[in-house]
Amino acid sequence: MNAASMQVRGLGAGYHGFSVLREIDLQAKPGITVIVGPNGAGKTTLLRALAGLMPRAGEVLLDGDALPANDATGCVRRGLALVAEGRQLFPQMTVTENLELGGWLQSPAERARRLKQAFDDFPRLRERAGQLAGTMSGGEQQMVAVARAMMSVPRLLMLDEPSLGLAPRMVAELLAIVTRIAREQGVTVLMVEQNVRKALQVADYGYVLERGRIVAQGDSRELLASDVIRRAYLGTA
Ligand code: ATP
To answer: What pLDDT was estimated at residue 236?
Structure first.
């Protein structure tokens, strides 16, 4: 499967008539694209709008095909998956049950195939297949959330602050998993991260979102070295 490209033009979104995002233009090409920005900049709103979870203006194309606005199921059908902030697992269900829910649009045969693949990709989850998701550690829960999103056979995977609250070792492990998904499994990744340095180190391209607008963008290496990132996010300028 070829990795997908997403093109966003003139995206706007908000809540109760209050505008949060204005005229957002961005691209997620094969590989890893990271969006960084301060609290309240609109990063979560952007991913939710792209995933069809809320109304939006503007155009979102996946490999040239328009994605529906405010239609999450339609977006999943077209190959989009979101790992939401806070993981949103079903804590009283087992790991296997959580994963199977991620494949609800697939045929039973495809679902079984994807489940085996998930356990191959995340051996720790196979060991804990029958454990209630709510009793797992934060890092393990984040792995379930990523594996569940992969069950829908996405072409583009979006992750909202996947490293939030994880110990440094788990952050590294998680970013290694994301890297493998993008580079070996050919799934394009669009990720919001507060761990700016580590995220840009694994990414190809980055955007800085402030007060609902893109204020900087560039190759991740250039961004890491740029004044705007060093001063505002790394504290090293
Ligand atoms: P953080 O890093 O703190 O998660 P963020 O960049 O993801 O921030 P958003 O969560 O998208 O930012 O929030 C952007 C703005 O939209 C904020 O002003 C927030 O208060 C507002 N907002 C978010 N969710 C809602 C909601 N359900 N109803 C009304 N306003 C909301």
So the answer is: 65
